[in-house]
Amino acid sequence: MGIDTSCDDTCVSVVASNGQIIANFRHTSLYREHGGVVPHLAKRQHARHLPTLIKRALQASGLQSAKELEGIAVTVGPGLGPCLGVGFRGARAICAQNNVPLIPINHIEAHALAARICSDPLHILENLANASTGHTSEDVTLDISKSFPLTPIQELNEDNIEIKPRILTKPFVEPELVQFPFLALIVSGGHTLLAHFSGLGDIERIGSSRDDACGEAFDKIARLVKIADGGRGLEQVAALGNQDRFALPVPYKKVFGFDFDISNV
């Protein structure tokens, strides 16, 4: 089982030993009126929804209890301290109660290593079919829009509170793993960096942002121009604009290296 509460999303997944994601549940809290994530509010939402997501992930996986898990991997950093604590304490309690190993995870490293679960997730998602059910729920948002094969799984639309299961039309095929070494561009919330992965735990940072990461720059600009939903809202508005209207500078064009300078752009 994997648990992540590093920012505003509460995420729980169960993964088989062959890399197949059996269950993948996520609750997302929006902070429109604040223009971005508010740590103490996010912590409260994590504490509210994490137990429900863990229970549903176990049920969707066909497991009778957490004792059947081979381990629980949980994000311990980087991230928002109050939010990380909710996931870590929850995972630690389950491990202690069920005699299951606890595996601390650096979630930036995990972003890159997720590519080794499946090298072509979008191709596999083309094999997913939608079907409607009559079940409803009010306490959880389930999202598999960017996930790998799930059998079965449910998706909930927060607007109409309707659950739609997605079922594989073809059997799971063992994916072709991304092999070491590889170069990873990681653009995740408060982190923008390039890293060279030679093996598990053998990582060299090649370049990173010297000021704000992409996500931070998006949220700050959204607040300045009063666009709701932070970076997400800004991206939606930008998609309607003219990308050729302004000639933006290219930072460090004459400086050797692989660092980023995003906020100045």
Give a structural overview.
The protein has helices spanning 39-61, 81-98, 107-113, 121-125, 214-224, 230-238; strands at 2-4, 9-15, 21-28, 72-77, 102-106, 128-130, 153-157, 162-168, 182-188, 191-199, 202-208. The chain has 265 residues and is an alpha+beta fold. The strands form three sheets. Strands 3-2-1-4-5 form a five-stranded mixed β-sheet. Helix 5 (214-224) crosses helix 6 (230-238). The protein starts with a strand and ends in a 27-residue tail after the last helix.
Give the averaged pLDDT, no decimals: 76
Largest sheet: 5 strands, mixed
Tell me what portion of residues adopts beta-strand conformation: 25-35%
- Give me the count of strands: 11
Number of helices: 6
- Report the helical percentage: 25-40%
Question: In which order are the strands of the major sheet placed?
Answer: 3-2-1-4-5
Q: How far do the termini sit from each other? A: 40 Å
Shape: globular
What's the alpha carbon Rg, rounded to whole Å? 20 Å
Q: H/E element string?
A: EEEHEHEHHEEEEEEHH
Uncertain stretches: 119-172
**Class from secondary-structure proportions:** alpha+beta
